[in-house]
Every structure is written in C-alpha cells, then in structure tokens.
C-alpha cells in the first residue's frame, strides 16, 4: 500500500467488510520475511521485510572501542546506530541523523542489552548498524527484531533473542502491527518488546489515549503476535545452520577424493 501524505489521511481506517485498509484482520501481522548472513563484511547480519519496511542490520564485535574514552574497564558496551535512508519515506528525510534516530538508537540498545553478556567483554564494544531502506510504520520494532537476529548470526553469546511489535488503536479498535497510515491517523501506538529468556518487557512506549482495561488487551494481543514473530526468527536461524550442516566439509571432501583413488 502506498504511503499517504498528511492531508490525504483517510477518514476511516476500516473498510466496509470490517477489514483494515490493507485487508488485514485486527490481530493479523503484515507479511514478514527474514534472512541472515546477508552482508559479507560484517561479523553477523540480517535482513527483514515486514510489510513495506525493508531493514538491514550489520553487527561488528567484540572489538576495540572508538573513541577510546567510551570504553568501560569492567564490561563491554553495546552501540546501536539506527538510520533511515533519505529515500525511505515519502518526504525526503534529511541525511544527517536527527533526534528521532538518536532516540530510537538508544531505545533499541536498551532493549537488547539485557540479553548480552557484556560483563564478559571488558574494554570492548559490540556495534549494530541498522539501515532502514523503506519505512512504513513500526520501524523501531522491526529494527529490534532484525538487530537481535544479526547478533545471533554473529555467534555472539546471548541469553535469548528479543522480539518487538507495535499494537495500537485505530477507529477505537485495538489492532496489532500498525502500518504507517494507521500509525499516523490512529489514536494510539504502543511499541512493545520482550526478552525470551525471562519473558520480561524490555521496551514499552506509548503514544495516544487508552485506559487500563485496554492496556491489558493490548498486551495480550502483542504477546500472541510476538510469539509468531519469534518463531520466524528461530526458523531463520535454524535454516542457516541446516544449510551449513549440508555443505560438504573439508574432511568429507577428502574422504570422497580418497575413495575415488
Ligand atoms: O517507525 P516507527 O513507528 O517505530 O517510528 P515513528 O517515529 O512512530 O514513525 C512512524 C512512521 O512514520 C515511520 O515508520 C515512517 O514510515 C514514517 N516517518 C516518516 O514518514 N518520516 C520521518 N522523518 C519519520 C518517520
């Protein structure tokens, strides 16, 4: 679905058949596709298509901290750089990182840090570069999800993956995974993430208007959605290791050559 400029926001966010403008049910996620190992020069990487969002994450580390004064003698540090490409949104985004990108980078870092064993890597840094190529609502949640996958792809010890999704309210109805139009024209938006090793909330932001009853419904809906997204993360990682185990090893190749002699 194309992005819509502000003056063109639709009056209603549900169609006559009760579905959302992009044809989804209230509890339905946009299509999600993930891949790992997509950037050759990174220690780990991942790519995520989530609806119209297209996002890359590249991970480096543990490595020396630059600038040196940021290094901590008793633990490693996690640095996240979330960037939106100038062409990723309807209006050209200014190329220099703005306040929004700095805030989102910090949120993503806070959200992922609990799953890392930073105390085992004193004086070093882990760096996660997130590039949003196409944005259409929910990029911070999508970025958390793809960054966790890239860290796992790098083989960095983790307590678990982290998964995020936004739930919100449009035309007074609670829905999961807001698209860009729903995010802008809706009444509430609640990005939510959990760390799976302890099932604790590692991100909960809120923008809009809701009561306590609604908040509990929001969280239930988010939990179901998170479970589905987590399964895709796991399947993506498993398929990488299945492919690796199917690739002929040097020993197997030597045995074959030996057998042919
Ligand atoms: O992407 P997310 O929902 O996490 O963050 P947001 O700040 O609530 O932005 C919602 C959406 O607005 C983004 O996903 C983009 O589609 C859009 N946006 C934009 O069009 N121009 C910007 N400079 C920033 C965001």
Task: Provide the fold topology.
Blueprint: E1 32-36, E2 44-50, E3 53-64, E4 77-84, H1 99-112, E5 124-134, H2 139-153, E6 162-170, E7 173-176, H3 180-185, E8 188-195, E9 200-204, E10 207-208, H4 212-246, H5 250-260
Parallel strand pairs: 4-5
Antiparallel strand pairs: 1-2, 2-3, 3-5, 6-7, 6-8, 8-9, 8-10
Helix pairs in contact: 1-2
The structure holds cytidine-5'-diphosphate.
Give an overview of the whole structure.
- The protein has five helices and ten strands.
- It is an alpha+beta fold and 261 residues long.
- It has one domain: GHMP Kinase, N-terminal domain (Ribosomal Protein S5, domain 2, 2-Layer Sandwich).
- Strand 6 (162-170) and strand 7 (173-176) form a beta hairpin.
- Bound molecules: cytidine-5'-diphosphate.
Overall geometry comes to globular
Arithmetic mean pLDDT: 93
Q: What fraction of the residues are assigned to beta strands by DSSP?
A: 25-35%
- Helix tally equals 5
Uncertain spans: none
Radius of gyration: 20 Å
Bound molecules: cytidine-5'-diphosphate
Determine the CATH topology: Ribosomal Protein S5, domain 2
Describe, in short, the structure shown.
By secondary structure, the chain is an alpha+beta fold. Helices cover 31% and strands 27% of the residues.
Provide the descriptors you would attach to this structure in a database record.
27% strand; 10 strands; binds cytidine-5'-diphosphate; alpha+beta
């Amino acid at each position: 679905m194309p992005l819509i400029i502000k003056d063109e926001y639709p009056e209603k966010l549900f169609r006559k058949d009760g579905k959302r403008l992009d044809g989804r049910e209230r509890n339905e996620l946009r299509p999600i596709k993930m891949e790992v190992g997509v950037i050759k020069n990174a220690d780990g990487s991942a790519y995520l298509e989530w609806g119209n969002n297209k996002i890359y994450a590249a991970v480096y580390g543990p490595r020396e901290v630059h600038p040196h004064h940021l290094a901590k003698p008793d633990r490693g540090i996690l640095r996240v750089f979330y960037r939106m490409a100038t062409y990723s949104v309807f209006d050209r985004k200014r190329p220099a990182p703005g306040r929004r990108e700095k805030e989102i980078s910090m949120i993503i870092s806070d959200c992922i840090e609990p799953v890392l064993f930073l105390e085992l890597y004193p004086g070093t840094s882990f760096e996660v570069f997130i590039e949003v190529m196409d944005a259409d609502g929910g990029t911070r949640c999508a970025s958390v999800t793809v960054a966790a996958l890239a860290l796992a792809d790098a083989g960095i010890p983790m307590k678990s993956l982290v998964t995020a999704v936004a739930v919100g309210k449009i035309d007074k109805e609670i829905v999961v995974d807001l698209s860009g139009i729903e995010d802008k024209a809706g009444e509430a938006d609640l990005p939510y993430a959990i760390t799976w090793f302890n099932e604790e909330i590692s991100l909960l932001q809120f923008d809009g208007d809701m009561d306590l009853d609604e908040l509990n419904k929001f969280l239930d809906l988010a939990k179901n959605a998170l479970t589905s997204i987590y399964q895709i993360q796991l399947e993506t990682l498993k398929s990488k290791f299945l492919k690796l185990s199917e690739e002929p090893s040097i020993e197997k190749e030597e045995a074959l050559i030996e057998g042919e002699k």
